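Worked example (supplementary).
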Amino acid sequence: MWLLVVVVCFLVWAVGTYWYLFGKPSPFSVESVRPPGPLELDQKKRHKILKQGFRKEKVPENLDAIVIGSGIGGMTAAATLAKLGKRVLVLEQHDQAGGCCHTFTEKGFEFDIGLHYIGQLHENSLFKIVMDQITEGQVQFVELDKHFDTIVIGTGEKSRKYTIYSGKTEMEEHLKEQFPDDTKAVEEFFKIMKMSARKTHLLAALKLIPQWVALFLLKSGIANLYSSIFRLVGTNATAVADSLTSNKDLHIIFYYLFYGKSCMTILTVVNYEWFEEWKDTPVRKRGDDYLAYKMRFANNLFDWACSQYPKLRDKLVYQEVSTPLSNTHYLGRYLGAMYSAEHNLERFQAEAIARNRCDTPVKNLFISGQDVFSCGIAGALHGGLLCASTVLKHIVYIDLLMLKKKLKKKKARETAEQVKKLL
Ligand SMILES: Cc1cc2nc3c(=O)[nH]c(=O)nc-3n(C[C@H](O)[C@H](O)[C@H](O)COP(=O)(O)OP(=O)(O)OC[C@H]3O[C@@H](n4cnc5c(N)ncnc54)[C@H](O)[C@@H]3O)c2cc1C
Ligand SMILES: *[C@@H]1O[C@H](CO)[C@@H](O)[C@H](O)[C@H]1NC(C)=O
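After joint prediction of all chains, the assembly is encoded as:
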């Protein structure tokens, strides 16, 4: 009798779990991706889509979800919900959609904001698959040169130049060539990086399983037995670099920030307080003193860039300077932060990751984007996927993994056919 009860309970649990994981319709499909259409360069036509002013009458009835903010995080969540037939309204505080992914044109030059380069976009990578799904294959990326970055440390005669190559093995090998006395440190560093990249999904899982289970696994130490990612994620990168080598240049390379591509972008770190006195002045009319003040930063940075690349000097046609106040105005950032919520060490402790979830104490209010996972286009996009999964009570990652399998099979079939033809 008891045995029967146990068997029935087990069956109910197994069927329930199966239904929860696999039994719901998928928002994603091979068919929803079509070949990219022609690039739209007509500003008027672009604005018609991107700059739709708000009017109460335009709001459709019977909405299922309202997404506040049209960055890649909000858009990923919105697109995923819409693909399942949900009626979604996206609201944006700026006069155009896109968040960090929007562009603006001044004096005929197009400036990009927060997308200069990203990795992991090779065929059938999970990231590429999601990008294709939410844009129906309409966003195209240009592959960078193998030598995609140069790091210059120091100035004048003492300056050292290092080059960075892309590619899983090439990046590591090329660094080793430039640091022949530190090959062990480079190897160790890449081992940690590769392991972290492979196991990042476990961190996303912390936000998808019931919170009490996540906290139990972490607090009991079971999670640490399973993978070192839970400990590594909250580890001080400076301390890790210190433990690997004493070479200061290599330290810088291990944790440098990287920016490049359509216009030249120069970035530096500043304090919000330095600009605070102008916070209540209207945008674009903050006064000559503000303009002069921010230009001092710009001119210094440009001089510094010219010291490395002297031919730039007489190529300067136009420059735009943004400050933390710009971030607050155009991106709705608290205290002008570049990446929204602070990316400090506390935030990345595994337990904090498990607690910072898409659902909130406010019923039907969910968080998405970089605040719920990590900064970067990929980080914010995963924030959107986690959010959609939470809202739908359906882990859309499972659909993505199944789609990935399908696409890989399709690719293998196509390759086999090509080979057959050649023979
Ligand atoms: C200068 C710069 C360079 C970067 N370079 C790269 C790079 O090369 N590669 C990379 O991977 N990442 C880069 N990033 C980071 C990346 O762009 C961001 O992490 C990511 O795009 C954030 O997406 P999100 O959707 O979370 O937020 P956002 O894109 O900021 O979107 C949030 C949106 O919400 C809107 N909003 C806020 N409050 C409200 C409100 N109350 N009502 C309505 N709307 C509101 C904002 O206006 C904004 O449009 C860069 C960021 C910056 C700033
Ligand atoms: C990280 O480690 C470095 C070097 O060990 C230390 O100086 C720094 O204070 C640490 N930072 C944090 C936030 O713990």
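Two points are worth noting when inspecting this output. The longest strand covers residues 147-153. The beta strands are 65-68, 88-91, 103-106, 109-112, 147-153, 160-165.
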